[in-house]
Each structure stands twice: as structure tokens, then as C-alpha cells.
Amino acid sequence: MAVPSQRELHRPILEIADGAKEDVVPKQYIREKVIERFSLTDDDVLEKVPSGGQTRLENRVSWALSYLKKAGFLQSPSRGHIQITPQGKEQLTTGADDLRSLRWKNLDAVRQGGDDADSPDIAANDEVGIASEDSTPDEQIAVLYRELSDRLAEELLERVKRVSPADFERLVVRLLEKMGYGRGETVGRSGDGGIDGIINQDALGLEKMYIQAKRWQSQVGEPEIRNFSGSLDGEGANKGVFITSSTFSKSARERAKSISQGSKFIRLIDGEELARLMINHGVGVVSEIIYDVKKLDENYFTEES
User: Fold this and answer.
1) CA separation for the pair 257, 232 (Å, rounded)
2) Residue 171, helix vs strand vs coil
């Protein structure tokens, strides 16, 4: 039997997770049970996707897991492990296994996310990563590109959260360098309000931007922003960037906004934005395959006047 499609894997994976002896199972367990359930041969298991980077089985199981997590039916309590949620158990009782029944858990955020207001509305049908049947090929490509980017951002942030604090500091300095802000260096001072990095924005180092880097799992609160502001005062600085692998509390964002209305400016970058910036500027990622989509050049065929 050929490797089942991603859609054909949704319900079986939920059933496998629900029927496991342990509440939390490794992804490898899911893969092995899929092989067993669909009686896949060695050739099926070893078949590669066109790009050659992954097996078709790994690719489809991984995408199915990703969608089921986005829908709220599965969760990852620890890296590389899967657990079915109460919503997932409820989904099994409905008998529905089509992708169109899977709703975005964070639909509003998806609709409002992204930097390009002119891009197609990828969540227009309240469905997980699926374009409208009426959408054009151009729109479908945009949908699929967004899905790939979303998934990569999740994987990248998960990996970033596992680096050492020192490596995280080096990572954010490297990112700001790649973004064109100047030559950077890590400082590595201890203390909650300390400066972790400095970007020299001109050749002589007369213009400096200071960095606080927090590789945290917990939310960054208002006291950390206040302490960082005090550190900027100690350096006689008026520009700072606070970057975290987690999120900022509402009060932290309000404090940064209040400070930035004065003589200083503090820019906050949370984990989600960090991952997007890393992707956009090629930090921690590589291009796997590139499709060069061309269009007709009408100017070429315009008759000379």
C-alpha cells in the first residue's frame, strides 16, 4: 500500500495517540504504528519526497501532527512527544476525519497575522491551512508558503529555546548584524538588568544600540523592562532592544511604550517575532528548495512606437 495522504492520517493518528498505553508517546511511536496500521512496505517507508530531503512518510506524518496540534487535538508536553487533548478525544467521537473539520485554535491571530496586508486571507474558510476551492493557483501557492513558514517558525523557536543563554546572546547579536544594524558584540554581564550585547551602528562606535537577551520559558514582566531601562541610563544610552524566546506581559509592553515616549526608545521582540526575523534574514535556516515562478513579460512583446 502506498503512503497515505496527510488527510488520511489525521484520524488514525488521533486513534493511535488515544489508544496508547501511555498518555504521552514519542513521535517515533506514532510513525511505527502508522507503518503497522497501513501495512507499509520497506519501499513505502523509504520513498523520498521530490526534494529528496525527507521520506514521504516522515513528511506526511510530521505535517499531520502539526495540523492536529494547531487544531488543538494534540499537544507536545515535551520535545518529540505527543499527547491527545480532551478536544482530540471529543473529535474522535464525531466521526469526522476530514481536514475541513479541523478549525484554527487561534483563528483571529492567523487572520490578523503577517506583514503583507495584500496577501490572500489564508484562514478565510476557518480551516486549518487549506485554500478555498475557488482560490487561484497563485493564492494556493501563497497559502502553502505561509504554512511552510508557520511550521518552520515553530520548529525554529523550539530549537532556539534549547540553546544555552550565552549562545542565545550570540544568536540575537548575529541576527541584528544580519539585519544591517552594524557590528555587534556580546557582553555577558550578570544580573537581571544587565546589558547582554552592543551593536556599534557606525564605524567609530559613536552610535550604539544596547541589547538584553532573555532565553526564557516564562513570560517577561514589567520589572525586567524597568531594570533594562535603568541599565540604559547607566550607559547614557537612548536605544535598546529587549529580545526574548518567550513572551512579554501586557504591563511589560505598556512600560516599554511609556519609556519610548520620552528620550529613550526600547524595542521589544518576543519569541514569535524572533523566529520570523531569523527566517527572513537567514539565521539558523537554509534554503531547501527554490521554485522560480515566472510570469509573462508584456513589455517584451510591446511593439516599438
Assistant:
1) 15
2) helix
**DSSP letter assigned to residue 245:** S
Structure confidence by residue, pLDDT tens digits, 77-98:
887 899 999 989 988 887 655 5
Domains of the chain: 1-101 (1.10.10.10), 165-280 (3.40.1350.10)
Contact 249, 278 (CB under 8 A): no
Q: Looking at the chain, how many residues does it have?
A: 305
How far apart, in whole angstroms, are the C-alpha atoms of residue 202 and residue 200?
6
Rounded distance between C-alpha atoms, residue 153 and residue 76, angstroms? 16
Indicate the SS3 state at residue 183. strand
First vs last C-alpha separation in the chain: 62
Amino acid at site 301: F
The DSSP secondary structure of 47-76, one letter per residue, reads PBPTTSSSBHHHHHHHHHHHHHHHTTSEE-
Distance CA 118, CA 139 (A): 11
pTM for the whole structure = 0.67
Task: Convert the pLDDT of each residue in 134-182 to its tens digit.
Answer: 556 666 777 788 888 988 999 999 999 999 999 999 999 999 999 999 9
| Cell numbers given for 95 | 466521526
